[in-house]
Specification:
This protein has a single domain, classed as Alpha-Beta Barrel (ADP-ribosylation fold). By secondary structure, it is α+β, with helices and mostly antiparallel strands. The strands form three sheets. Strands 3-5-8 form a three-stranded antiparallel β-sheet. A three-stranded antiparallel β-sheet has the order 4-7-6. The protein is globular and about 45 Å long. Helices cover 17% and strands 26% of the residues. It contains three helices and eight strands.
Length: 125
């Protein structure tokens, strides 16, 4: 099941299967901190764009901010809430150099506690 899953949301840990992101449990799942790629992406609904560009990205009801390693994954995520979603570009390497911690999720997903607005830009900018 895990090997064939498209979304890669689970892993084998010892003799158990566990969720990568822990959406449904109250304790924070600790992830491995890593240096991110130069650029990451965040797909979101259009009406959130200006708020994110001024206030940054926050985890809201999740444990971490979810970022995508490629535009296609970000588009897929954004379209869950808005068919005409937008893609935000995250200058991840610059953020990391300035103290933002990034965590490896899987080959398509990176996580962060928060993303400051100074390193976020709209695809159209």
């Amino acid at each position: 099941m895990i090997a064939n899953s498209i979304k890669k949301r689970h892993e084998i840990s010892g003799d158990r299967i566990k969720a990568f992101y822990g959406h449904s449990i109250p304790m924070k799942i600790e992830k491995e901190e890593r240096k991110p790629p130069h650029i990451l992406y965040h797909g979101t609904k259009r009406k959130s764009e200006q708020t994110i560009l001024t206030q940054g990205l926050k985890p809201c009801s999740r444990q971490y901010v979810h970022l995508s390693q490629d535009v296609e994954t970000a588009m897929e995520v954004g379209k869950r809430r808005d068919i005409e979603s937008i893609i935000l570009i995250i200058e991840a390497e610059k953020a990391y150099t300035n103290g933002v911690k990034f965590y490896y999720g899987n080959e398509k997903v990176w996580l962060a506690d928060t993303i400051p607005p100074q390193i976020i830009r709209s695809e159209k900018n």
